[in-house]
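$ fold --in a.seq
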Amino acid sequence: MFRRKFMGIFGAAALAMTGAMPLKAEAGQDIVDTAVSAGSFNTLVAAVQAADLVGTLKGEGPFTVFAPTDEAFAALPEGTVETLLKPENKDQLVAILTYHVVPAKVMSGDIAGKKAQVMTVQGDRLEVNARNGVKVEGAEVIQADIVASNGVIHVVDKVLLPE
């Protein structure tokens, strides 16, 4: 149902890395378990739980997740995260979170030096530019290719917001 053909997302040579130790998935861990064990996605994990998307992201996949760090969520206007986590805002939270998910496993080498528009689970397209660094809707990919049992995580420095 979520599977659609599209071009891949990143050029491996264009990836920017943080000075922190690179994240790695433990053998057999799915996307959710990988995010939990990383320790830098606490807000994302809380949002996925509040949106009842844990079961989906622990599912067969494959998925590509653009995972905003806790710092990316903290950069949102004050009170945004708290408001989104309220039960009455669940639909908006689901829309934002599924905008970060592509219904296929896309590794970094797939579009080196290219631009692409990719369909998200939410239904909108993301603009990906791997010509000079790697940006997804203006967010920089700061670590790519964290392989999980049901897909891959690419860490981004901003929360992606659908229009």
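$ fold --in b.seq
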Amino acid sequence: MSELTRVHLLRHGEVHNPTKVLYGRLPGYHLSDLGLAMAERVAGAVAERDVAVLVSSPLDRARETAAPLADALGLEVRLDDRLLEALNVFEGLTFGVGDGSIRHPRHWRSLRNPFKPSWGEPYREIADRMLAAMSDARRDAAGHEAVLVSHQLPIWTVRSFIEGRRLWHDPRRRECALASLTTVTYEDDTIVSVAYSEPAGDLLPQSGKPFSAGA
């Protein structure tokens, strides 16, 4: 009989980033109060699931998102560099149209090829490392479920690869909200489906619902 295994790719919760820089792999960027509430919400959503493996990117915001899941599931968090945020030359800078670093000609050469992309880690390399991390988690959780805490671009890139879409894309069109789950189901070692859910969707800033840190 074939064996079904589910690997959930969890994007971390909201980060405290008052200066609005592209923080990338920089240390010291932690979850905001809202981000901590998002992590708790996801922990509640997966607490009764058959999760046998919990893995996280080593970055602070990912580990802080994984912590309440570890408590709820009674699991140790394993760290995996393959789940890290993508490398980016604009790390630590503000980035936007008419704003910050892209106004300066010295940065324009980094924008010359959006298909690779020229400003950071190639999309295919991101997809390959994510697939490798997912494959190991699938093996270790065979017949059960695994949660891997990562970041928006790596999760969206590997999902696009799995679903046969081009890897270069408009970042505004990613379906990968804060604290969302992208669930990949394997039949034995073959991917058979991808699903998406937002267990903390009502806490997202665009939901319009007020948030209280004491709630």
